[in-house]
Specification:
alpha+beta, 3-stranded antiparallel sheet
Length: 100
């Protein structure tokens, strides 16, 4: 299995903004922010695209360093890398929350 862990120094503004530039991915981030730091199981997200398309969007967010995912039994748990994003791009989380 390919290691998709992205180190903080590898997270670039260009990749983060590109990842956030799609309504489905922005919705994922908002749903994760509503979790107040808790993880969310992939099967519990609200989305209107196919499962394969949704998985593709999650992969883009993960590769950009915006989210992290881990296996827990048969479930895939997802969380936002809020601390890393806030440290690298102060105000980004607040901007996302205020843009609803």
């Amino acid at each position: 299995m390919k290691n998709n862990k992205v180190k903080q120094q590898q997270i670039t503004l260009e990749n983060v903004m590109k990842a956030l530039g799609h309504p489905v991915r922005l919705s994922v981030i908002r749903q994760l922010l509503e979790m107040n730091g808790e993880e969310k199981a992939c099967g519990t997200f609200y989305y209107t695209v196919t499962k394969a398309t949704f998985s593709h969007h999650l992969k883009i967010l993960e590769e950009a360093g915006v989210i992290q995912r881990r296996d827990e039994g048969t479930r895939k748990m997802t969380s936002i890398k809020a601390e890393e994003l806030q440290k690298k791009f102060p105000g980004l989380i607040k901007l996302i929350l205020s843009s609803k």
